[in-house]
Sequence to fold (713 residues):
Amino acid sequence: MEQLEARSGASARAVTAQERRAIDALVAQAQQGSADAFGALYDRYQPDILRYLLHHVRDRETAEDLTQHVFLSAWQAIPRYEQRSVPFSAWLYRMARNRMIDHFRTRRPTVDIALLDLPEAPEAEARVLAAERRGELERALARLSDDHREVLVLRFVLEHSAAEIGAIMGRKEVTVRGLQLRALRALRKELAALEPPR
Amino acid sequence: MSRPPRDAPLDAALDAALDALAAGGSVEDCLAAWPQHRAALEPALRAATHARALHLPASPPDPARRAAFMAQLHATPQLTPRSRGAALRAAVQAFAALGRRGLVLAPAAAIVAAALFVTLGRSAPPAEASTLTIFAGAVERADGAGWRPLADNAQLSEGARLRTSAAGRAVLTFEDGSTVALEPDTELTIERLRTAGARAIALRLAYGRLWHDVAAAPDRDASASYLVRTPDATVSARGTLFETAVTGGETTVATLEGSVELTRDGARQLVQRGQLARAQLHRPLAPPEQQQPFALAIAIDAPFVAALVAPDGRATGARLDGLRYHQISGATSSDPGSGEQRIALAHAAPGVYTLLLGRTAPGEGALVLTAADGERRVPLDPTLDALALRLQIEQRDGRTVVTPLRIAAAADTPLERLVVPERARLRAAVLLRERAAQREQQREQGDARATPPPADARATPPSARPTIGPRPAAAPTRTLPTPPRSRDPLAPATRPTRAPASVGPERTPTPAPTR
Fold:
């Protein structure tokens, strides 16, 4: 099996033609039922999918669980994946996106709150206070629309190009360029709103 | 990468500028490159410099997680590739050669190719699988003469024989959304598994205890079947909640919702809600007995949907998307869309449980916990959208006692581990839509009628069922009919003492969820 080079932290746009061929070969083998080949694809893409989900769900344990689900679903469905339709990475991101939407559609918020007549655990209060001190950036990001947050995470966390983001989100490249402009404007506005008045 | 020209549109200039920033360029450099967009670019690029702080370094997968994933992967079958396209291509290629022999043959070739496409594409349906979720201990599958351990999320199809260890607890989810929970020291064989079309599920319980949540058959399909065969009898159910146990040389069946039929040697016995029946070899079927009242009931007199998570992670309750689930043996949840949600446990293993509550509408309310030690009312803060309440359940002198502990921290809050097949999800969504339409219709009818009833009209005498406190006058009024729970055989025989302000069945009810 052709091995992939370790690319810790490398951006997806740095995918070389050689690596693309290696990925295509692994995908073909995984489609024939090779667990080893899929394991190599897992090693290659798991960190990116985890970071992508982590920025949306903001809880590492949940993000890791969702990531495992995404890859297990991908393993089940990979015989039906057609390489010509969409790049493998975009196919994976779409699965992650769907899983995330499903997660937000069904989960209960886990923000902690106080019951009026129950003894309050001191650590609960400390955690609530800690939650209050989250970085302004994440708070601003959380206030953006789903599309704006999505495009910023894909662009700045995962360093995808507009064309790659288009493949993941199912949009045209030119649409993504406009979207990222509006997303940055919205982020700027939210950051300004969070700043204390001088 | 080629830089867009100076007169490039703003979005293209920004895209190139972001590339330049990522490559180490400065904001000033970018602004100098596209001076005509300076005013619009600058704030976007300043925001981009902030956004770059979002970047997280990637690290290789955690070895333990990777190992767990690979174990799951080996236990998970792949889907079959779509074969219709290949069949069609092959058929067309084969008959194209015939078609080239003459124009007369060409239409015939097309017709035969189409027929072949239909025939080849309609391959035998793949074997259906159920999904195993392991909550505690070990679950093994018979493999030849021995047993081998199963991984969480394993797919099990017809013929699978499995057993739980002395501490093993697991749930099997079928593709129609039905579930069966396996208690410790239980052996089960999936004899028949078909949920597509008319359901035909047959399980054989050799020993141990199972808790069944059988999804209602679509369109009340009379041919749907769900059978549990034991050494002593056969149990048949449709859309119901019931327990089956094979212990001490007898089969017991306890029905908590709907009804089941117990058959043996041609004799039949209907076991209805709240009843328990026993079957022993070489003995006639005895009439069913009435079950003991529930050990613990939680009434959600508030605009929330709730789920109770047991110490082992199994959950019973409802979700915001309308899905109901019953993984905890002996625990039932009423439908929050039909009125006040009530979670009742026929028997409760001691431990710390978590009650998850998600708000569905504005308004005040409370929880009412009813156990052997009486009734406790826990008011809920009207400003809060989510609660995670810890409940300690203990057995004292043979009685179940519940104590509210504290709210759970986010990091400690367990979430339900559910396998939700697409059909179950769709069914819940359809139900939600129907309920919303009903509510809308009844709201219109309510508006057309006159004013709400006077306050004292709600102060009816207490009934035999656990009741809940009054709701504020401003709370929306449920318009769906209240289920006749006063005849609930699972309700306590005597009603605990309450404050005089408590109200009976005519109380102002909980608003239905707005989803």
